Amino acid sequence: MAFFKAVLFMSLGVLFHAAYSVAEWRYYSRKTDQDTESIPWDIIIQTLAGFLLAMIAVLNIAGEFKEIRATVELSQKSWEDVRNRPSFYLFNHRAMALSPDYVPPSPSASGMGRSHLTKIPDKYLS
Amino acid sequence: MNVQEGRELLRSWREDNVRRSMDVVDLWDSLLSQDPEALGDEKWMVLEQVAVAAMDVQRRDVVERCLKRLKAEFDLDSIRVRRLYGMRHEMMGDWESALKLYDTILEEDSANSSARKRKIAIHRAKGERPQAIGELSRYLNDFLCDTEAWMELCDLYLEERDYAKAAYCCEELILHNPNNHIYFQRYAEIKYTQGGMDNIEMAKTYYAKTLSLNPDNIRALYGILLASFQLASSNKMPAPKKQEFMKMVMWSSKQIQKRYQTKNAPIDPSRFIQAFVSQPPNGQSGASS
Amino acid sequence: MSSSETSGEPALSFSCRAYAKMALHAAKYPHCAVNGVLLASKAQIKSLSTSSSSSSPKMLVVDAIPLSHQSRGLSPMLEMGLALTESLAEQEGLGVVGVYHVNELFHDISEDSFMKEVGKKIAENMSFSLVVTVDNQKLSLVMESHALIVRQCSGDKLKDVQDIILEGPTLEVVSTLLQRKNQALLNDFDNHLDDMGCDILNRDLNSVILQCLERLD
């Protein structure tokens, strides 16, 4: 970024120098009655070079361009992110259970009559 | 990672609407909490983002720290800070306190949409789906262009298995976002689930539109395959149309296989895709509810 | 797959892999309703299909394939996922024996009507299917009891299945995996559709589960 800022600064200097050169040349050509001659080639080349450098510098400073077609950017998105609705977020979900402070209900408190891992079936108890 | 990179990552998650609450809190713990001042202008937005993420993962210590800092700066005069305190009550399951707080916000500013949305979220959190739907419908009468709210209503109707109304909500989303392939895909899925030949044909059309907007959408290809297969299998379909749908089945199955080959996928779906191509039509009429 | 620790009494058992994948799927998307399918050996499914449907099924659920966390109530991708899973499972000598789902709200242990219909559709091909609801409240970083509410679906009827056994130190294994945040390794069908490089069979995760099981066994 700093490099391109330096290039931009330099290219503005080059353009300014070219403009000054044209002004000087115009002054002297009027003085020597050589109005009909076109601008010298070196000034034209210097102007074009300055313009090119300025363009390269500005394009790099401006950052990434966005795709002009709306569909291209949207095609990178999936429902995974589009579906999120921060204004409607709920917090009573199972992240509660996955927090280190959470203590699950004890198996005996389940009261659902489901057999627990360590329960020995009655017919094997003498 | 340094603070600047962490800040940019959080900014990109904020802008892209990503819900990676555990990652946000981990980033806060490991990097940003030591010196929040280094976040510069974005400090308050980051604190808000981290507070909400911490509520999402039940990290009460982080929530308290962030809210304390925000309250010290903006005081409870700020509606945005008060809303965060309301969400904190919700995190703790204290619905009454949260509702009271949101009501005070609405007394001050009756047009405050975020407080209204939180009240609707509380209905949903309590499992009161019909009330949530009622409130959300009234909200949408006032705020017709709220895409988030239409998406929420669509989801609520899907939970109620009212596919016709869910489809209507999805149509609103499409109208607001005519270039977004995701809404077209969602609409196609709702129509397919609704069942019936007309709806399945509509689903196929919308899947095709999804594919034209995003040629990489594999769900659209699968959807075209499934819908065309169901239509080709129907006894009520005239023979020329059946042939057309079978051509779509062949085309979509080839496209799917090509995608899997290009991406070097770890599974080979060719056997199950072949089942669609080679299975004789069985007269099934779609997955109606 | 290890044999269940049954003493010969008819019992439905879940392998460590099946239970772990259900729990990890639930943990990966804590704010979403998730669902998937359950697999058992084709031979067991066939023998149970011919036996009386009034008794509790004696079988081992070998594996669970996570399907969806974002398509709740919508059938197209679920149908595709089911078809793909059936085709892949067949190659391993397994078949679809039921579905599992985990509700979004923490205290909600009701059966999901949509998944119940999927269960019924699966039962059309066998005499029964399983509809498993995972109880969010029983999940934790240190699990003390299994979190499964199992119902057997035969025709239109749903019957509670009380006798459930887990393979070996499944609860310790799953607790360890959750503490290590191994749920990030899991891929479901929705992930696969977003990125076809994701392995829906979760072979890498299966090795991790096996390593953990061998260490704790």
TrEMBL record, chain A:
It is a multi-pass membrane protein. The chain crosses the membrane at residues 39-59. The keyword Transmembrane applies. One of its GO terms (cellular component) is EMC complex. It holds the Pfam family MMgT. Its main location: endoplasmic reticulum. GO terms for molecular function: inorganic cation transmembrane transporter activity. Part of the endoplasmic reticulum membrane protein complex (EMC) that enables the energy-independent insertion into endoplasmic reticulum membranes of newly synthesized membrane proteins. May be involved in Mg(2+) transport. Belongs to the membrane magnesium transporter (TC 1.A.67) family. This is Membrane magnesium transporter. It comes from Tigriopus californicus (Marine copepod). The lineage of its organism: Eukaryota, Metazoa, Ecdysozoa, Arthropoda, Crustacea.
From TrEMBL, chain B:
InterPro entries: EMC2-like (IPR039856), TPR-like_helical_dom_sf (IPR011990), TPR_EMC2 (IPR055217), TPR_rpt (IPR019734). TPR repeats lie at residues 147-180. It comes from the Eukaryota. SUPFAM superfamilies: TPR-like (SSF48452). It is a peripheral membrane protein. Residues 83-191 form the EMC2 TPR-like domain. GO terms for cellular component: EMC complex. Keywords: Endoplasmic reticulum, Membrane, Repeat, TPR repeat. SMART domains: TPR (SM00028). The keyword Nucleotide-binding does not apply. It is found in: Endoplasmic reticulum membrane. Component of the ER membrane protein complex (EMC). Belongs to the EMC2 family. PANTHER family: TETRATRICOPEPTIDE REPEAT PROTEIN (PTHR12760). Part of the endoplasmic reticulum membrane protein complex (EMC) that enables the energy-independent insertion into endoplasmic reticulum membranes of newly synthesized membrane proteins. This is ER membrane protein complex subunit 2. It comes from Tigriopus californicus.
From TrEMBL, chain C:
One of its GO terms (cellular component) is EMC complex. This is MPN domain-containing protein. PANTHER family: ER MEMBRANE PROTEIN COMPLEX (PTHR12941), ER MEMBRANE PROTEIN COMPLEX SUBUNIT 8_9 HOMOLOG (PTHR12941:SF10). The lineage of its organism: Eukaryota, Metazoa, Ecdysozoa, Arthropoda, Crustacea. It comes from the Eukaryota. It comes from Tigriopus californicus.
